[in-house]
Amino acid sequence: MVKKTEISLNHPRAKSLKTRHSLVSHVKSGVVTLAGVLAHGRGEAFDYLLGEKTTETAHAAIKTAAATMLLAEHPVISVNGNIAALVPEGIIKLAEVTGAKIEVNLFHRTLHREEAIKQLLEKYGAKEVLGVGEACSAEIPEICSERRNVDPKGILLADVILVPLEDGDRTEALRKMGKTVITVDLNPLSRTAQWANVTIVDEVARTFPLLIEESKLLKNQTKKNLQNIVSSFDNKKNLATTIEQINQRLSGLAKQGVYIPEANELYKEHET
Amino acid sequence: MVKKTEISLNHPRAKSLKTRHSLVSHVKSGVVTLAGVLAHGRGEAFDYLLGEKTTETAHAAIKTAAATMLLAEHPVISVNGNIAALVPEGIIKLAEVTGAKIEVNLFHRTLHREEAIKQLLEKYGAKEVLGVGEACSAEIPEICSERRNVDPKGILLADVILVPLEDGDRTEALRKMGKTVITVDLNPLSRTAQWANVTIVDEVARTFPLLIEESKLLKNQTKKNLQNIVSSFDNKKNLATTIEQINQRLSGLAKQGVYIPEANELYKEHET
Prior knowledge:
Helix content of chain A: 40-55%
Strand order of the largest sheet of chain A: 2-1-5-6-7
Number of helices of chain A: 12
Largest sheet of chain A: 5 strands, parallel
Largest interface: A-B, 61 and 58 residues
Structural class of chain A: alpha/beta
Oligomer: homodimer
Distance between the termini of chain A: 46 Å
CATH architecture of the domain at 56-241 in chain A: 3-Layer(aba) Sandwich
CATH class of the domain at 56-241 in chain A: Alpha Beta
CATH superfamily of the domain at 56-241 in chain A: Phosphopantoate/pantothenate synthetase
Shape of chain A: globular
Strand content of chain A: 5-15%
């Protein structure tokens, strides 16, 4: 459907195009849904506005996320199709470093998809993948989609849950249950970004290596030091700064209206 | 691939989710490509920034677009997969009111897709659909993709072309050929938005009913009145205002960081 176009390394957006293609390549196996492809497109647009780089505010959230996961008693990484397709190795490494469990949790849920995701993660070395099939014997009644079914050994028990690329209803329900929620979401205005305790506004393929690195660095810190990192972080303020960054980038462009020089020439020709 | 998940009417973004699902439902028949699904996601991101509503600047562009189409001698609506999937009925109604021809013009072109789109439009009552198969015997050499092939009875002859959800290269080429180009594009920074004569920064499912309504209202106006509407519209200024509106909205949100009242309550609880 999308042609396997060769991506030139010189292309100004080569990295983003590569990520896109790696996502799309997982549609056939059922790991990624069309809704997932769409959501990725939305993320791309926000990444464009952020300048396609990990901002300072994202770095601050990543550090806090690492400390939060290390402090947790029962941390869980909630995995959906897109995240499994984009950073399969990263999920496993992060789980290893932080001692987190991995649980599959899907909006568009079928046993086939759950198993496809489990297989993908196992291919990359995952030893235990929760949330597949009959294992989801517990229910979160506050969630009005198939995501309500969770694994009693995983999300139900968890105190801290990393839910990258999440839908808003679920984040809201998890927060209301008293869970601490960390998310990675490129849209600082999304309901997930708004409801989470720690919102990393960044692209997951960039975030995961940084989050793993930060977790390794902080792993031997004292509990007190980790708590200090968490308590000095203000998610609300961090989100505000992120939105302001996007805004400032747009401000410059707003002054011009049409910013492509050649396109501007055409206006001038007609202004006579 | 995507299950017909029930979208609760209470969901705060039900309208957007419904539009998304209607797009995705057309992938199987070949009307919509994966690239089209991704592009829709990008559009959703900009709709977030606009507040998911038709702005005053969009209304001004819609009025001008209606007047421009009514003044045209040979108006044409250029149809791709996404627009056919999202507003099949709207395309036909608008063509009827403005006397425009309908031409299929695709970036990812196959005879199968052209025919799937033609069939979809005919199902909704289209009597003539140009640009399918052998009908595209003319060429626009300036366009370096399969979109260069056009119908001599349609786009080649046209003085005014409505190209919703268009790619930048083509808009640029059409402008350079001296055509008047109207577009509907949620991204005011896109090359299409930048190159078009009249840029409606809005979501097509919201725009089309308004554009049809406006065309009906203006249909009996004198040529002079219509010309006044067109000449008093400044696309560059309108684009600048649109970007400025996004800017102001983000400014307000940046001050808050978290703008969902209930999510904000949770922060307050923890601030004690």
